[in-house]
Amino acid sequence: MPPNNDSKPSAPLTNDRIFGVIPNYRTVEDPTRGIAPLSTKQKFQIAAGDSFDYYAYPIAALFAAVAQAQNSPQSWGQGWDAYGKRFAAQFVDQTDENMMTEAVVPWLAKQDPRYFRMGQGSFWHRTGYAVSRIWVTRTDSGHKAFNVSEIAGAGIAATISNAYYPQDSRSIS
């Protein structure tokens, strides 16, 4: 379930979607309003909403189909059993990355996993701001900080994936 853009801590989730389909749970549309920091529970609610949204299942199925077509990892072979392994791995990849980047690491680093939209300025200024959010985020206290949540969270999720992918697919790529 998506976050509510209000400062009400008791109602963090709303049903915000891009094109009416893709979940957009972490965007704060009007950051000029008083934005309350998220509680730990709210961070986990956002991550669970992203992870178990109805859209997550067909996306995992699509990525599994691409991996099946590429026969990656090769040791899983072909057929429905192999596709099932690929689907499960893709779904767990999505889920553990969401949990690490939106809940666990933000909780530990005291960072806000939401994206605070810049509604004013030129196209290039807003684009530059959006790209910078890869590296810069907001802390729970409202200050700017290096985005440990996204960078370290993605690294932790990639490390976790080594537990369920076969050894032949564990490489730098």
Structure overview:
With about 170 residues, the protein is mainly α. It has one domain. The chain contains five helices and seven strands, in the order E-E-E-H-H-H-E-E-H-E-E-H. The strands form three sheets. The protein has a three-stranded antiparallel beta sheet with strand order 4-6-7. A two-stranded antiparallel sheet has the order 1-2. A two-stranded parallel ribbon has the order 3-5. A hairpin with a 3-residue loop joins strand 1 and strand 2. Helix 1 runs antiparallel to helix 3. The radius of gyration is 18 Å and the shape is elongated. The N terminus is likely disordered.
Quick structural gist:
With 173 residues, the protein is mainly alpha-helical. The protein contains five helices and seven strands, in the order E-E-E-H-H-H-E-E-H-E-E-H.
Number of domains: 1
Structural class: mainly alpha
Radius of gyration: 18 Å
- The oligomeric state is single chain
Strand content: 5-15%
Shape: elongated
Which stretches are poorly predicted, pLDDT < 50 over at least 5 residues?
A: 1-11
Distance between the amino and carboxyl termini: 32 Å
Biggest sheet features: 3 strands, antiparallel
What is the β-strand count?
A: 7
Helix share bin: 40-55%
Question: Overall pLDDT, averaged?
Answer: 85
Number of helices: 5
Order of strands across the main sheet = 4-6-7
SSE succession = EEEHHHEEHEEH
